[in-house]
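anyone seen this seq b4? input:
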Amino acid sequence: MAAIAAIFLNYIGAHLTFFGEPVDIDPEAVRFYWIAVAVLVAGLAASFGAAARRRARKSYAWHSLMAAIGTVVAVGFAVTQTGPPS
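predicted toks r here
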């Protein structure tokens, strides 16, 4: 859940501007996005693996919900290019 929040906050930080200044996305925001996506994928894989190992079938509903929300957030709030947003 922290990686989902981090991706959203990174998007807001990369695109937020005050007083009409032009937005210029820096490479640090793009790098942080990919790191957060990697952490999200690793966390989901580990949680699904742990649920499978202990045979916790009810946990799959929660993990599936988090995977769906994580996918929507990662695609919807992607920061993959530097410079002005297109």
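The chain has one domain: 2-17+27-76. The CA atoms of residues 24 and 84 lie 5 Å apart. kinda curious what u guys think
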